[in-house]
Amino acid sequence: MTESQVPSGLPECEPEMSVDNRGTGCANGIARVQRALEDLDDGDVLEILSTDRRAKEEYPRLAEQTPHELLGIESERKRLVRTEYTTYLRVRERTEGGDSGES
């Protein structure tokens, strides 16, 4: 997904959970986001707050590699040199086929 394909703006829904990754790098932030996604139900929305400029690359990549849906990313300049990113993901459950562990 290229940056031009990333939905911009905010979805018209209230998130069920928010993860505040401001001040942390995307690598640590992705792990926190993945844990939060595991705690949510199908259709729930996760809001991710970040100050890492890679958010516009990493969170869309996460959505591409998982069944979750990227709803939008908004960036807002805070203070003189800081930009904050707000990303919204809708939780989508994996299909049950093949996940049962049966041989």
TrEMBL record:
Residues 18-76 form the UPF0033 domain. Keywords: Transferase. GO terms for molecular function: transferase activity. Pfam families: TusA. It comes from the Archaea. Residues 1-22 are annotated as: Disordered. This is Sulfurtransferase TusA family protein.
